[in-house]
Amino acid sequence: MAQVDILLGLQWGDEGKGKIVDFLAPKYDVVARFQGGPNAGHTLEFDGHKHVLHQIPSGIFHEGILNVIGNGVVLDPKVFQEEIEKLKPFNLDLKKHLVLSNKAQMIVPTHRILDQAYEQAKGDKKIGSTLRGIGPTYQDKVARRGLRIGDVDEPDFDKRYEEIKNYHLRILEHYDFEFDITKDEEIFFNAIETIRSFDILSTEYLINQAITDNKAVLAEGAQGSMLDIDFGSYPFVTSSNTISAGACNGLGVAPRWIGEVFGIFKAYCTRVGSGPFPTELQGEDGEELRKKGNEFGATTGRPRRCGWLDLPALKYSCMLNGVTKLFMMKADVLADLDEVKVCYGYEMEGKTTDELPLYLEGTDWELMFKAFKGWGATKANSFDALPSLLLEYIAYIEEQVKAPIEIVSLGPNRVETVLKEAFTA
Questions:
Q1: 49 catalytic residue (yes or no)
Q2: pLDDT in tens, 62-77
Q3: Fewer CB near the last or first residue (10 Å), C or N of the chain?
Q4: Span between the terminal Cα atoms of the chain, in Å
Q5: Sign of the dihedral defined by the CA atoms of residues 224, 227, 228, 231, in that order
Q6: Is residue 348 within 8 Å of residue 299, measured between CB atoms?
Q7: How far apart are CA 28 and CA 355, in angstroms?
Q8: DSSP codes joined into one string, 45-90
Q9: In degrees rounded to 5, what are phi and psi of residue 58?
Q10: Residue 351's beta-bridge partner residues?
């Protein structure tokens, strides 16, 4: 039988997962999203076009690949319809190549309003939510009152919708927050018809049958490991399990079928919104890195906070995920810098450690850095052709995290990707 490979981010999201899924997709028969929702923004660039996918898996541009929105995803019908509309000019057979889990939770208009009201009420303690309704939807899922995508085919769907909407409206009475959902509801119910036009299935059967039939499956994660609800920088995290274990729950796959775990990370670090960021660069240095890397959120457009690579955090993510292969993104962004730094440990009370504390901020510590020289031009079509200074940087990271770097990305386009000769998916 075939195994399910997992591809996920190892930092605070925005690592470049969309590009790599698109790049690897031809090696797979099925690409399946297993968690998150429209808070994700997976960017793909090829043939002169830039695409940003929020809920649709990143294998959608390849003929013959089945794309699955899994049960662990929270799906916004409005955003889904918008994505479908944006893909129409490319003449993709979406009805053939995209299926939805009937167990995926549904984001309704009042979920987004609740998200905004909750965030506003936090004042200066905001967590940096994307305001897409993700948290409130997962809350309703756990509280066992949420709507599921399969409910759209039930005869009492409208009644179910009214019940959850009215529940939300009662909560909103306690918040000083003005809103009008009239237009949003009109768009929502129009989008529900689009949802109904797709195959809505018990996709756990579909994926497990694919495994039995020896078909290759790639599980696509969203956000990043440091935003995991259990192991991320809590409470500044997302509402789902972003680590590899989440793929089993989010797709209905037993752990025995997990094969490779591909971990994606940037050659430096970024973060959107609030939360701790030990290696963050402030002032002009941070702004220079932001400009060089064009670091603005694909979903929100917000400027990303930028800083040096944090190896203790990267090692932690590799451990949690059982990473078998590493993919390093945006190596080109650091090429022209005079000096590139890497944090390899923290010093606390005179002791050195590379373990993450319970709280990443408010701790009396010193960061320990190793410096490298920028590597200059990065145009290469093989690993051996990469600049020697970049290879030195790669070798240091591999030695520290005890995992091989098999892909290096040198730009946003599909073709700006270098693989080790020995790499196989």
A1: no
A2: 889 999 999 999 999 9
A3: N
A4: 16
A5: positive
A6: no
A7: 36
A8: EETTEEEEESSS-TTTTSTT-EEEE-TTBEE-HHHHHHHHHHHGGG
A9: -80, 5
A10: 348
For residue 14, indicate whether it is catalytic: yes
CA 282, 331, 8, 301 dihedral sign is positive
Q: Does this model's pTM top 0.90?
A: yes
Of 5, 14, 22, 332, which residue is the catalytic one? 14
- pLDDT per position as a tens digit, 9-42: 999 988 988 888 888 989 999 999 999 998 877 7
State the pLDDT confidence band at 151, using cuts at 50, 70 and 90.
very high
d(CA 46, CA 90): 12
What the block records as the tokens of 339 is: 């000096």
Residue with token string 């923004």: 41
The pLDDT of residue 273 is above 80: yes
Q: Record the tokens describing residue 332, joined without a space.
A: 């080109």
Question: Which residue is listed with tokens 């037993």?
Answer: 254
Q: If DSSP codes are grouped into helix, strand and coil, which group holds residue 260?
A: strand
Length of the chain: 425
Token output for 405: 């770097």
Residue 44 has pLDDT above 90, yes or no: no
Q: Give the residue from 28, 18, 101, 34 showing the smallest Cα distance to 243.
A: 34
Tell me the pLDDT tens digit for each residue of 217-242: 999 999 999 999 999 999 999 999 99
What is the tally of helices (H) and strands (E) in the chain? 12, 20
